[in-house]
Amino acid sequence: QVQLVESGGGLVQAGGSLRLSCAVSGRTLGSSTVGWFRQAPGKQRGLVAGITRDGDPNYADSVKGRFTISRDNAKNSVYLQMNSLKPEDSAVYYCAAGQSRKLLGLGVSDYMGQGTQVTVSS
Known about the structure:
Blueprint: E1 3-7, E2 10-13, E3 18-25, E4 33-39, E5 46-51, E6 57-59, E7 67-72, E8 77-82, E9 91-98, H1 100-106, E10 111-112, E11 116-121
């Protein structure tokens, strides 16, 4: 059974930083594209950042230059470093894994975690 478990969320002031982690079990990450989605109340869930199995990152325009996605295949883990956080970044953040075209192109994942809350105060 594949499980993705996010951690690292919390409350931070605007301008601050957080680092989200995602531990994957039941599947080797190496061949998958992985990414982070987020969903704020009343809004659709959307892709924030993704990284292919070759290490190529992709970012939503709203987070370019502030967020950095990385992966450690040896640890079967994915990370999201979030800097210069804004109140509009507040959301539940989900870690996901899947096929590159589906995940990055359609926002469709094969696996997704339960999410971790990020709240940015103004």
